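> Could you send the Bardet-Biedl syndrome 9 prediction when you get a chance?

Sure thing. Input:
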Amino acid sequence: ASSVFVLGERNFFCLKDNGQIRFMKKLDCSPSCFLPYCSVSEGTINTLIGNHNNMLHIYQDVTLKWATQLPHIPVAVRVGCVHDLKGVIVTLSDDGHLQCSYLGTDPSLFQAPKVESRVESRELHYDELDIELKELQKIIKDVNKSQGIWPMTEREDDLKVSAMVSPNFDSVSQATDVAVGTDLVPSVTVKVTLQNRLALQKAKLSVYVQPPLVLTCDQFTFEFMAPEMNRTVSFSVYLKGSYTPPELEGNAVVSYSRPSDRNPDGIPRVIQCKFRLPLKLICLPGQPSKTASHKLTIDTNKSPVSLL
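Output:
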């Protein structure tokens, strides 16, 4: 039978298709998103409910089955399959960050049997068990090293990304189609360098800045990068608009694939690097007024913004 789910500010309703209430659950916190999905138990429904306290609750009808803390407030939640791993919970934060989470397996209900007599306990061959345990540990270690679904990061320097912002404006401004009054809008050059230790495939560099800042080029693609190779790309940033951006920080994100023994096509990975643009890119210098009618003095215990 079909059901209709309604999420309120403090209540969660499940209605039958004829309008009758199947069940109702009062919530302690203000919810931010929810997702009903099929339960393994016949006749019941599982529901994921996120709230503004960075929590994610899993209900079976009205019974709380699991609760977990998230690093953000989820505004959307889905259950999917990632690299053949079923049951991955995908949440989206209010600022656009996507996170994949996994709750693990069901708790073990196994209880060790009681030893009825001391004679039976003495018959255990501990030396043989110790040898078998070491063999199993070696097998697990070998599998973790060679698996291609969730690889262990042996070294974090497979790819290094660095960004350098030029301290001076471009001699010839790249903002040729923008002007503020009679003054030409300046531009500044940013260089991003990629240093890879291993062979990488399908590397894509994407650069982001806050509007109305504009990039002369925001996408760079490298089909193949040989080991120990450095790649440097340059682009210019300038202001295209009559308002100021919320921040001067830019972000260079590189997505690439690293081949493995079990996955020749490559394991997808992402690395990012942040850079900060100079304040003079969006502000024009002005002469201080010594005969002003009003003066405002600001004291702060923080380092002031660099005006260079």
